[in-house]
Amino acid sequence: MLLDGRASVQFAGDRALWLRVSSICDRPTCGGWVWLTGYAINPATEEALARREVFAQIAGLQINPCRHAGR
Which domain holds residue 48? Predict the structure, then answer.
C-alpha cells in the first residue's frame, strides 16, 4: 500500500511510504481515519525495512497502485 500526502500530511512529498499492512486496529478513531500496523518496504526490492504503526485517512490509501499493473 502506498501512503503519500493523500493519506496524511506526514507522508507528503519525499516522505511517501510503502507499507506492507499486517493489521488494522479496531480502536475508535476520528471519522475516516485508521491505525495501520505493518512493515515499511523498499519498493524496488520489496524488502521489509522497519515495523511501523501509522495513522492515515482511509480515502487516501492506495492499494496496489499502477506500478504493479504490469506484473
Answer: 2-65
